[in-house]
């Protein structure tokens, strides 16, 4: 049962992160189209945001492994 719970938690975290990354990148590209002179600053901010979003599934995997190995 623990394996199923860990798999569901990791899968949902990955799904949520992929949706969040899609939203961030979409809005950044939309902003770059509106104001091309800010594209460098927007790109840097986008990479920071994507990095923070990607931290969530990594932490989810770590917590899932901790729960699986804590017997």
TrEMBL record:
Entry's transmembrane regions: 46-70
Keyword terms, alphabetized: ATP synthesis, Cell membrane, CF(0), Hydrogen ion transport, Ion transport, Lipid-binding, Membrane, Transmembrane, Transmembrane helix, Transport
Domain V-ATPase proteolipid subunit C-like stretches: 4-67
Residues carrying the site annotation Reversibly protonated during proton transport: 54
PROSITE patterns (alphabetical): ATPASE_C
Keyword rRNA processing found: no
Major site of localization recorded for this protein: membrane
Protein's membrane topology: Multi-pass membrane protein
Subcellular locations according to the entry: Cell membrane; Membrane
Superkingdom of source: Bacteria
HAMAP family tied to this protein: ATP_synth_c_bact (MF_01396)
UniProt similarity note: Belongs to the ATPase C chain family.
Reported function: Key component of the F(0) channel; it plays a direct role in translocation across the membrane. A homomeric c-ring of between 10-14 subunits forms the central stalk rotor element with the F(1) delta and epsilon subunits.
Name used for this protein in its record: ATP synthase subunit c
UniProt lineage: Bacteria, Bacillati, Bacillota, Bacilli, Lactobacillales
Gene name linked to the record: atpE
């Amino acid at each position: 049962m623990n394996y199923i719970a860990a798999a569901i938690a990791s899968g949902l975290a990955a799904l949520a992160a992929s949706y969040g990354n899609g939203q961030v990148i979409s809005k950044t590209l939309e902003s770059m189209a509106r104001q091309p002179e800010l594209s460098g600053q927007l790109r840097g901010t986008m990479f920071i945001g994507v990095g923070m979003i990607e931290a969530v599934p990594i932490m989810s995997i770590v917590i899932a492994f901790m729960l699986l190995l804590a017997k």
